[in-house]
Amino acid sequence: MESGELHTSHMVVGGDALARDANGRVVFVAGALPEETVRVRYRTTKKDFATADVIEVITASPSRVEPACEAWQRGCGGCDWQHIEPQAQLAFKADMVREALARTAKIDQPVVTIGASIEPWGYRTTVRLAVDPSGRVGFRSRRSHDLVLTQACPVAHPLINEMLAVVTATRTDEITLRVGLGNDEPAAWGDTGGEIFGLGMGITHGVHAMVHEVVAGHRFQVSAGSFFQSSPAAAELLVQSVARACADIDLRKATVIDAYGGVGLFAATVAGAAGRVVLVEASPSACADARHNLAVQRADGRAEVVERRLEDWEPVDAQVVIADPARSGLDKVAVAVLADTGADRFVLVSCDAGSLARDTRLLRDAGYAHRGTEVFDGFPNTSHIEAVTRFDRV
Ligand SMILES: C[S@@+](CC[C@H](N)C(=O)[O-])C[C@H]1O[C@@H](n2cnc3c(N)ncnc32)[C@H](O)[C@@H]1O
User: Check: CATH 3.65.10.10 for 3-63?
Assistant: First the structure.
């Protein structure tokens, strides 16, 4: 593929820097930062845009650093932003969100504020690893399906690294390692069964593995098949932000919908004192955990766990919706169902700037005005964002 020299302007959704070639065509440059001059090798070239990788930095951004991780040097695809100084990453993430809201949701000068970041290293409490035919584990490479074997990961929690150093597996293509910091409990399971070796005593294996996390003073049971945020620290930031987005509402008098509620993170904390909370969640495992985690509220009739796809749920009247969908975001059907609750306040938790912008457009069409987005860093050293957006019915 051909190479060339480019000057970048800003970061865009997906984590690449944007540049324009001599013909004005947009080029998405992986491995570049804003305001850099770089030599690139083109990966794909289309009529309207191209993608490219940095092969030499000619003028570096002051925020550029040399990635310290040895697996990154060997092409590990886990951390696409390790070349950016951790303190600078959150501002770039906020810029990405601002740009997406302006371009896709057509909001002129959207209100986007910068929240907090968790510690940039040693934070991940769940990692998913690929397994090679001889049982060794690693992460997928940046640009291919190849495996980068690894026995240490600097963004993973130290207890995960203890497992990573010794684990092998057979009869499965992928395994997940998780640690619950509530009791420092390690757990491991093969995503398609199989057997896991090397982990020694005290580690729960298999799909019935269960760990515990403590967030905002609440203890959560989290089973192998259930989603949990990247770390309890990231979960804490989200809970605080969602609470701020509802701070002007007396939740004791409100019905709150916790859509895509998982194991009950927001239902138990932000909506812990709500008049009523209805958690809607598709995963049977997460629902079982949520029923356990919300037992007190369920016992007094204030909490209900509905095990159903949101799209198939029959909406009930509510004052507040908290929705935390998967990376792909809401869709038209989900927005219509949630808008049918009649809620005046809609708090959207997003982990992708592109889907946040698309959802903002859908919500605007359903009668909700964007009031502000707070951006966090729950995934330092990657381009993943966490954002909490407040909408009001107008
Ligand atoms: C990003 S997680 C958020 C979970 C929870 N709010 C938390 O913070 O831990 C998204 C959740 O949505 C669930 N989910 C995915 N698609 C769904 C659907 N169509 N209807 C309901 N729940 C769904 C997943 O099982 C997952 O638990």
Answer: no
